[in-house]
Amino acid sequence: MEKDSDNGRELVKADRKEITQNYYSFNIAAPATDEEFDDALGTVMQYLLFGSKWDPVAITDKRVLSKIPIIQDIPLRCEVRDCPYAAKCPLLRKARPQEEAGLMGTDCRADKLYAAELFSTLIQDLEVGPENTVDLINVASLVRLMVIQRRIDWAIALDGIELREVSAIDQRSGQAYLKLTSHPLLKEMERLQKQISVLQTQLMANRKERLNYAASIGKGGDLIKNLLTTKLNPTIELVEEEESVD
Fold it and tell me: Can you give the pTM of this predicted structure?
């Protein structure tokens, strides 16, 4: 049995080494199909989950990661330089011309990598494990909102906070008179931030409940013994002491 345990530790150690090497050799712009990129992204997530409640489960079996409700439906389709966010895209800043051609029509890798990094960070900070189904769904929803929020941030950064729109047209000369108006996405940003805040508050409350529960279980090493002897009830203890005094 001890030998099997040692072999298991050696396998996990070897897996970690391979995962670490693959993480540092990961190239977001490398030619690959959507399936190949998703497989490589899975390895990235394995590395990012080192030390979390998903470790070592996700380390020894990458298929576990497929059960994580990470976004699969929200990434944009890559239009390379025709994408409205091209000037802000971290992928296009790294991609070489010959790599850009292979990106056309694929799922947005910038969205997917950003979502994977966000998801990994959140479940570690909030101490969410594979068994916390409701929190996992809430974290996935939070990631979706934050991906959309980043797109809005990019759009406003590229367009400016204020836009020029036609306020009136001189009917005789045809001259258009412009006025400055707030970017319409500012209202959407405000709505998103409220939704994000609600989810963050709920997740923090759930984390606090888990920590309080863990603390109550961990207080004193004789919880089960105390339950069986009714020593968790201070009134009973007090009566017992008074009887012994009499």
Answer: 0.73
